Amino acid sequence: MAETGPQPIIIKKVNKGHGGHHGGAWKIAYADFVTAMMAFFLLLWLLNSVTQEQLEGISNYFAPVTASSSTSGSGDILGGQTITEEGAASSSTSRDAVTVDLPPPKAGTGGEDNTETQSEGEGDGPGDASAEALAKAEQDQFEKAKEELEETIAGIPQMRQLAESLLIDNSTEGLRIQLVDQDGLAMFPSGGADMYLHTKRLLEVVSKVIAKMTNKISISGHTDAVPFVTDNGYSNWELSADRANAARRSLLHFKIPEPRFSHVIGKAATEPLLPDDPKHARNRRLSIVMLRGTGEGNVAKPKKEEDVLPGLGDIKRKQLEQGESSGGITLELEPRFEAQ
Asked: At the top level of CATH, which class does the domain 130-291 belong to?
Protein backbone atom coordinates (compact mmCIF):
# COMPACT_ATOMS: atom_id res chain seq x y z
CA MET A 1 0.00 0.00 0.00
CA ALA A 2 1.46 3.24 -1.07
CA GLU A 3 2.04 5.90 1.35
CA THR A 4 -0.23 8.86 1.14
CA GLY A 5 1.38 12.08 1.93
CA PRO A 6 -0.32 15.33 2.59
CA GLN A 7 -2.11 16.59 -0.51
CA PRO A 8 -1.14 20.02 -1.75
CA ILE A 9 -3.63 22.78 -1.21
CA ILE A 10 -4.27 24.76 -4.37
CA ILE A 11 -5.72 28.24 -3.91
CA LYS A 12 -7.27 29.85 -7.02
CA LYS A 13 -7.50 33.59 -7.00
CA VAL A 14 -10.07 35.01 -9.40
CA ASN A 15 -9.75 38.71 -10.14
CA LYS A 16 -13.31 39.88 -10.67
CA GLY A 17 -13.44 43.07 -12.65
CA HIS A 18 -16.15 45.57 -11.68
CA GLY A 19 -15.95 47.56 -14.92
CA GLY A 20 -18.65 45.61 -16.71
CA HIS A 21 -21.42 46.00 -14.20
CA HIS A 22 -20.35 48.56 -11.67
CA GLY A 23 -18.08 50.67 -13.92
CA GLY A 24 -18.87 54.02 -15.67
CA ALA A 25 -18.66 53.09 -19.36
CA TRP A 26 -22.39 52.53 -19.70
CA LYS A 27 -23.08 56.01 -18.34
CA ILE A 28 -21.22 57.56 -21.22
CA ALA A 29 -23.23 55.55 -23.73
CA TYR A 30 -26.48 56.45 -22.02
CA ALA A 31 -25.55 60.12 -21.95
CA ASP A 32 -24.85 60.01 -25.68
CA PHE A 33 -28.24 58.35 -26.27
CA VAL A 34 -30.09 60.97 -24.21
CA THR A 35 -28.27 63.78 -25.99
CA ALA A 36 -29.19 62.33 -29.38
CA MET A 37 -32.85 61.96 -28.36
CA MET A 38 -32.95 65.54 -27.08
CA ALA A 39 -31.46 66.78 -30.34
CA PHE A 40 -34.00 64.71 -32.28
CA PHE A 41 -37.01 66.08 -30.41
CA LEU A 42 -35.58 69.61 -30.63
CA LEU A 43 -35.38 69.13 -34.40
CA LEU A 44 -39.00 67.96 -34.51
CA TRP A 45 -40.11 70.98 -32.49
CA LEU A 46 -38.24 73.36 -34.77
CA LEU A 47 -39.72 71.77 -37.89
CA ASN A 48 -43.19 72.14 -36.43
CA SER A 49 -42.72 75.78 -35.45
CA VAL A 50 -41.43 77.21 -38.74
CA THR A 51 -43.55 78.11 -41.75
CA GLN A 52 -43.70 76.24 -45.04
CA GLU A 53 -41.70 78.98 -46.75
CA GLN A 54 -38.91 78.68 -44.21
CA LEU A 55 -38.82 74.91 -44.69
CA GLU A 56 -38.47 75.43 -48.42
CA GLY A 57 -35.63 77.88 -47.80
CA ILE A 58 -33.80 75.40 -45.58
CA SER A 59 -34.33 72.63 -48.14
CA ASN A 60 -33.04 74.79 -50.96
CA TYR A 61 -30.06 75.82 -48.87
CA PHE A 62 -28.87 72.22 -48.57
CA ALA A 63 -29.79 71.33 -52.17
CA PRO A 64 -28.11 73.95 -54.43
CA VAL A 65 -25.57 72.86 -57.01
CA THR A 66 -24.27 76.31 -57.91
CA ALA A 67 -23.79 79.40 -55.83
CA SER A 68 -26.18 82.30 -55.97
CA SER A 69 -25.49 84.89 -58.64
CA SER A 70 -26.53 87.73 -56.36
CA THR A 71 -23.95 90.49 -56.08
CA SER A 72 -25.38 91.96 -52.88
CA GLY A 73 -24.01 91.37 -49.40
CA SER A 74 -21.12 89.00 -48.99
CA GLY A 75 -21.57 87.32 -52.35
CA ASP A 76 -21.77 83.93 -50.66
CA ILE A 77 -24.45 81.29 -51.18
CA LEU A 78 -27.20 83.42 -49.64
CA GLY A 79 -25.83 86.66 -51.07
CA GLY A 80 -26.10 88.53 -47.76
CA GLN A 81 -29.72 87.48 -47.24
CA THR A 82 -31.37 85.23 -44.72
CA ILE A 83 -32.80 81.88 -45.65
CA THR A 84 -36.31 83.11 -44.82
CA GLU A 85 -36.24 85.77 -47.53
CA GLU A 86 -37.89 84.95 -50.80
CA GLY A 87 -35.40 83.94 -53.49
CA ALA A 88 -32.39 83.94 -51.16
CA ALA A 89 -31.45 80.34 -51.85
CA SER A 90 -32.95 79.92 -55.32
CA SER A 91 -30.90 78.19 -57.95
CA SER A 92 -31.47 77.74 -61.64
CA THR A 93 -30.03 74.23 -61.68
CA SER A 94 -31.12 72.83 -58.33
CA ARG A 95 -34.42 71.12 -57.63
CA ASP A 96 -36.50 71.64 -54.50
CA ALA A 97 -36.19 68.78 -52.06
CA VAL A 98 -39.59 69.58 -50.55
CA THR A 99 -42.69 69.33 -52.71
CA VAL A 100 -45.54 71.63 -51.67
CA ASP A 101 -49.10 71.09 -52.85
CA LEU A 102 -50.59 74.54 -53.46
CA PRO A 103 -54.19 75.27 -54.49
CA PRO A 104 -54.59 75.66 -58.27
CA PRO A 105 -54.69 79.29 -59.45
CA LYS A 106 -57.91 80.74 -60.76
CA ALA A 107 -58.21 80.97 -64.52
CA GLY A 108 -56.89 84.19 -65.92
CA THR A 109 -56.13 85.74 -62.54
CA GLY A 110 -52.75 84.36 -61.55
CA GLY A 111 -53.87 82.89 -58.24
CA GLU A 112 -55.90 83.90 -55.22
CA ASP A 113 -53.46 86.52 -53.97
CA ASN A 114 -53.27 88.11 -57.38
CA THR A 115 -57.06 88.12 -57.58
CA GLU A 116 -57.29 90.04 -54.34
CA THR A 117 -54.66 92.48 -55.56
CA GLN A 118 -56.53 93.00 -58.81
CA SER A 119 -59.84 93.51 -57.06
CA GLU A 120 -58.26 96.05 -54.74
CA GLY A 121 -56.58 97.81 -57.62
CA GLU A 122 -59.63 98.03 -59.84
CA GLY A 123 -61.05 101.49 -60.11
CA ASP A 124 -58.19 103.14 -58.26
CA GLY A 125 -57.61 105.62 -61.02
CA PRO A 126 -57.38 109.40 -60.69
CA GLY A 127 -61.11 109.77 -61.38
CA ASP A 128 -62.09 107.50 -58.50
CA ALA A 129 -59.71 109.23 -56.12
CA SER A 130 -61.16 112.59 -57.12
CA ALA A 131 -64.72 111.30 -56.64
CA GLU A 132 -63.85 110.01 -53.17
CA ALA A 133 -62.31 113.35 -52.24
CA LEU A 134 -65.41 115.21 -53.44
CA ALA A 135 -67.71 112.85 -51.53
CA LYS A 136 -65.68 113.32 -48.34
CA ALA A 137 -65.67 117.10 -48.75
CA GLU A 138 -69.43 117.05 -49.30
CA GLN A 139 -69.98 114.92 -46.21
CA ASP A 140 -67.85 117.32 -44.14
CA GLN A 141 -69.94 120.18 -45.49
CA PHE A 142 -73.13 118.39 -44.45
CA GLU A 143 -71.78 117.86 -40.94
CA LYS A 144 -70.80 121.51 -40.59
CA ALA A 145 -74.19 122.66 -41.87
CA LYS A 146 -75.93 120.41 -39.36
CA GLU A 147 -73.84 121.74 -36.46
CA GLU A 148 -74.34 125.34 -37.56
CA LEU A 149 -78.10 124.94 -37.84
CA GLU A 150 -78.39 123.29 -34.42
CA GLU A 151 -76.22 125.97 -32.81
CA THR A 152 -78.25 128.74 -34.47
CA ILE A 153 -81.55 127.36 -33.20
CA ALA A 154 -80.11 126.88 -29.71
CA GLY A 155 -78.70 130.42 -29.70
CA ILE A 156 -81.99 132.20 -30.47
CA PRO A 157 -84.26 132.26 -27.38
CA GLN A 158 -87.40 132.66 -29.48
CA MET A 159 -86.48 129.54 -31.46
CA ARG A 160 -85.75 127.20 -28.59
CA GLN A 161 -89.37 126.13 -28.44
CA LEU A 162 -89.09 125.06 -32.09
CA ALA A 163 -85.95 122.97 -31.50
CA GLU A 164 -88.01 119.77 -31.27
CA SER A 165 -89.76 120.68 -34.52
CA LEU A 166 -86.44 120.60 -36.42
CA LEU A 167 -84.93 117.21 -37.29
CA ILE A 168 -81.58 117.07 -39.10
CA ASP A 169 -79.91 113.87 -40.23
CA ASN A 170 -77.75 112.40 -42.99
CA SER A 171 -79.70 110.05 -45.24
CA THR A 172 -78.70 108.12 -48.34
CA GLU A 173 -80.15 110.98 -50.41
CA GLY A 174 -78.21 113.67 -48.60
CA LEU A 175 -78.58 116.12 -45.72
CA ARG A 176 -82.23 115.98 -44.66
CA ILE A 177 -83.86 118.87 -42.75
CA GLN A 178 -87.40 118.19 -41.53
CA LEU A 179 -89.88 120.64 -40.07
CA VAL A 180 -92.16 118.51 -37.92
CA ASP A 181 -95.45 119.26 -36.18
CA GLN A 182 -95.61 118.94 -32.41
CA ASP A 183 -98.65 118.33 -30.27
CA GLY A 184 -100.10 121.83 -29.92
CA LEU A 185 -97.56 123.43 -32.25
CA ALA A 186 -98.29 122.82 -35.94
CA MET A 187 -96.45 124.18 -38.95
CA PHE A 188 -99.65 124.74 -40.98
CA PRO A 189 -103.31 125.26 -40.13
CA SER A 190 -105.41 122.11 -40.26
CA GLY A 191 -106.28 121.38 -43.89
CA GLY A 192 -104.44 124.47 -45.15
CA ALA A 193 -101.18 125.24 -46.97
CA ASP A 194 -100.61 128.80 -45.65
CA MET A 195 -97.80 128.39 -43.13
CA TYR A 196 -97.76 130.07 -39.74
CA LEU A 197 -95.37 132.93 -38.98
CA HIS A 198 -93.13 130.76 -36.78
CA THR A 199 -92.85 128.29 -39.66
CA LYS A 200 -91.62 131.09 -41.93
CA ARG A 201 -89.10 132.18 -39.30
CA LEU A 202 -87.83 128.61 -39.00
CA LEU A 203 -87.53 128.35 -42.77
CA GLU A 204 -85.61 131.62 -42.81
CA VAL A 205 -83.02 130.18 -40.42
CA VAL A 206 -82.79 127.04 -42.53
CA SER A 207 -82.38 129.09 -45.72
CA LYS A 208 -79.28 130.84 -44.35
CA VAL A 209 -77.54 127.47 -44.05
CA ILE A 210 -78.85 126.21 -47.40
CA ALA A 211 -77.63 129.38 -49.15
CA LYS A 212 -74.02 128.56 -48.19
CA MET A 213 -74.20 125.28 -50.09
CA THR A 214 -74.57 124.49 -53.78
CA ASN A 215 -76.46 121.20 -53.73
CA LYS A 216 -79.76 120.69 -55.47
CA ILE A 217 -82.82 120.75 -53.19
CA SER A 218 -85.67 118.28 -52.95
CA ILE A 219 -88.80 119.26 -50.99
CA SER A 220 -91.52 116.81 -50.02
CA GLY A 221 -94.70 117.36 -48.00
CA HIS A 222 -96.12 114.72 -45.66
CA THR A 223 -99.41 114.41 -43.81
CA ASP A 224 -100.72 112.04 -41.17
CA ALA A 225 -103.06 109.15 -41.93
CA VAL A 226 -106.20 110.93 -40.80
CA PRO A 227 -108.59 110.85 -43.80
CA PHE A 228 -109.05 114.25 -45.38
CA VAL A 229 -111.18 114.75 -48.50
CA THR A 230 -113.23 117.84 -49.42
CA ASP A 231 -116.32 117.98 -51.61
CA ASN A 232 -114.26 118.77 -54.70
CA GLY A 233 -111.87 115.82 -54.10
CA TYR A 234 -109.07 117.81 -52.46
CA SER A 235 -107.23 115.25 -50.30
CA ASN A 236 -104.02 114.68 -48.37
CA TRP A 237 -102.20 114.27 -51.68
CA GLU A 238 -103.00 117.78 -52.87
CA LEU A 239 -102.51 119.17 -49.36
CA SER A 240 -99.01 117.69 -48.98
CA ALA A 241 -98.01 118.92 -52.45
CA ASP A 242 -99.34 122.43 -51.75
CA ARG A 243 -97.41 122.60 -48.48
CA ALA A 244 -94.21 121.51 -50.25
CA ASN A 245 -94.76 124.22 -52.86
CA ALA A 246 -95.37 126.77 -50.10
CA ALA A 247 -91.96 125.86 -48.64
CA ARG A 248 -90.38 126.29 -52.09
CA ARG A 249 -91.89 129.77 -52.47
CA SER A 250 -90.64 130.77 -49.02
CA LEU A 251 -87.10 129.60 -49.83
CA LEU A 252 -87.25 131.57 -53.08
CA HIS A 253 -88.24 134.61 -51.03
CA PHE A 254 -85.18 134.00 -48.83
CA LYS A 255 -82.86 134.23 -51.88
CA ILE A 256 -82.45 130.54 -52.72
CA PRO A 257 -81.97 130.43 -56.54
CA GLU A 258 -84.69 128.78 -58.59
CA PRO A 259 -82.29 126.43 -60.49
CA ARG A 260 -81.34 124.73 -57.22
CA PHE A 261 -84.78 123.16 -56.79
CA SER A 262 -84.72 119.63 -58.14
CA HIS A 263 -88.26 118.48 -57.42
CA VAL A 264 -91.23 119.25 -55.18
CA ILE A 265 -93.34 116.26 -54.14
CA GLY A 266 -96.49 115.59 -52.17
CA LYS A 267 -96.39 112.17 -50.48
CA ALA A 268 -99.50 112.36 -48.31
CA ALA A 269 -99.25 109.69 -45.59
CA THR A 270 -97.21 107.14 -47.56
CA GLU A 271 -93.97 107.66 -45.58
CA PRO A 272 -94.89 108.25 -41.92
CA LEU A 273 -92.20 109.40 -39.53
CA LEU A 274 -93.72 107.12 -36.89
CA PRO A 275 -94.86 103.96 -38.73
CA ASP A 276 -96.32 102.48 -35.53
CA ASP A 277 -98.56 105.50 -35.06
CA PRO A 278 -99.46 106.84 -38.53
CA LYS A 279 -102.02 109.31 -37.13
CA HIS A 280 -99.53 111.01 -34.80
CA ALA A 281 -98.98 114.74 -35.27
CA ARG A 282 -95.23 114.33 -35.95
CA ASN A 283 -96.05 112.57 -39.20
CA ARG A 284 -97.14 115.97 -40.57
CA ARG A 285 -93.91 117.53 -41.78
CA LEU A 286 -91.87 119.18 -44.52
CA SER A 287 -88.73 117.39 -45.67
CA ILE A 288 -85.98 119.43 -47.33
CA VAL A 289 -83.09 117.34 -48.67
CA MET A 290 -79.74 118.66 -49.89
CA LEU A 291 -79.19 116.03 -52.57
CA ARG A 292 -75.89 114.18 -52.34
CA GLY A 293 -73.56 114.41 -55.34
CA THR A 294 -75.23 117.48 -56.87
CA GLY A 295 -73.02 120.17 -55.38
CA GLU A 296 -70.38 122.24 -57.11
CA GLY A 297 -67.73 119.95 -58.58
CA ASN A 298 -70.01 116.89 -58.55
CA VAL A 299 -71.15 116.27 -62.10
CA ALA A 300 -73.45 113.32 -62.53
CA LYS A 301 -72.38 110.90 -65.24
CA PRO A 302 -74.91 110.65 -68.07
CA LYS A 303 -76.80 107.40 -67.97
CA LYS A 304 -76.93 105.11 -70.95
CA GLU A 305 -80.23 104.15 -72.49
CA GLU A 306 -79.75 100.60 -71.20
CA ASP A 307 -79.36 101.96 -67.65
CA VAL A 308 -82.57 103.97 -67.84
CA LEU A 309 -84.66 101.29 -69.56
CA PRO A 310 -83.10 97.80 -69.48
CA GLY A 311 -83.33 96.10 -72.85
CA LEU A 312 -83.92 99.34 -74.75
CA GLY A 313 -80.70 98.93 -76.70
CA ASP A 314 -81.70 95.50 -78.02
CA ILE A 315 -85.15 96.75 -79.03
CA LYS A 316 -83.62 99.70 -80.84
CA ARG A 317 -81.14 97.49 -82.74
CA LYS A 318 -83.90 95.08 -83.79
CA GLN A 319 -86.05 97.96 -85.03
CA LEU A 320 -83.14 99.38 -87.00
CA GLU A 321 -82.45 95.97 -88.56
CA GLN A 322 -86.10 95.53 -89.48
CA GLY A 323 -86.20 99.01 -90.94
CA GLU A 324 -83.11 98.39 -93.09
CA SER A 325 -84.36 95.02 -94.34
CA SER A 326 -87.89 96.13 -95.14
CA GLY A 327 -87.15 99.67 -96.18
CA GLY A 328 -89.60 100.96 -93.60
CA ILE A 329 -89.34 103.87 -91.18
CA THR A 330 -86.74 103.63 -88.45
CA LEU A 331 -87.59 104.77 -84.95
CA GLU A 332 -85.17 107.25 -83.39
CA LEU A 333 -85.19 107.10 -79.60
CA GLU A 334 -83.55 110.36 -78.69
CA PRO A 335 -84.91 111.96 -75.49
CA ARG A 336 -85.74 115.61 -75.85
CA PHE A 337 -86.55 117.74 -72.86
CA GLU A 338 -87.88 121.26 -72.91
CA ALA A 339 -87.78 123.64 -69.98
CA GLN A 340 -91.21 124.26 -68.55
From this structure: alpha beta
